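Re: the 174-residue chain
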Amino acid sequence: MDADVQPTSMGDIMWRGCLILLILPLVLMLGFCGWVRWESPRGALPPEVEWDEIIAFGEDFGLRDGCGFGAYHISPETSLRFVEGRDLPVGWYRTPLPMEDGQYAYVGPDRKRITLYAHHGTTCASKKGKRLGLPDRYQRALRGPGNWYRISNHGEGLIVVSPKEALAWYLYFG
């Protein structure tokens, strides 16, 4: 045995094991959080809204609540389907969406009044989204004719599709 090489003691092995047990959860947690940030914008829209590019996506989370605002370029097939209003699942309605006091919406053919929390999701727009004026374009699309919207999670989620602009917006607040 070389004079420079010393046998590994039980204390050294325990020390290395403890380091691995402390570092491993941190590495796994960071990897999971990175995956969630990568996956979150990709799974926000339902399958009937096919998209080919995420233009901008911003989100913020707290302990219990969060918000998100995303804008997507939709495929030509999706634009055509929404222009014609064909093959759309139940729950899609034509704009304009009547609103009152900036938070109450009258949804669907029976104009049921709900609190539309998702409308405040524009506060989470990314810098790129704000620079491109996407929150303002969303507001115009929601108020103008010829577009479609779908509300989910008791008013906490909202998707707006503008086939003429080939854009879809995802908003969440709650």
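The helical segments are 10-42, 76-84, 127-131, 134-143.
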